[in-house]
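lol ok so funny story. i was supposed to be doing the assay writeup but got distracted and ended up predicting the structure for this chain instead. priorities right. anyway since i did it might as well share w the group, maybe its usefull for someone
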Amino acid sequence: MRAPAQAHAATELASSGPGLSSTPTAHDAATPQPAPDAEGWIWLPENVFRTAFAQHSTPTQQRALAAAQRPIAPACIAVPVGRPLWHDVPAWYLVAETTA
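and the output, tada:
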């Protein structure tokens, strides 16, 4: 996983770049495809919390997380960014390597 570079959108990061194949895998098939609801907001389906977001949580915690989530606007992940601030100021992000 990488941070977006100038002129890239967050949605591009999961499907391009060094070490990423253009051949679909079983993992790709299980990856949710974010789509806005009737009001234009994107929500993660409850099953996504169970499989990708909170896999170490209890079923009760997973349901609570799914119910309490805040939606995002499609532009948050689809609009290319300008010059990323991390080019000019110290910044960090977390890469989780454990999947189970």
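The longest helix spans residues 59-68. The chain has one domain: 10-87.
back to the writeup now i swear
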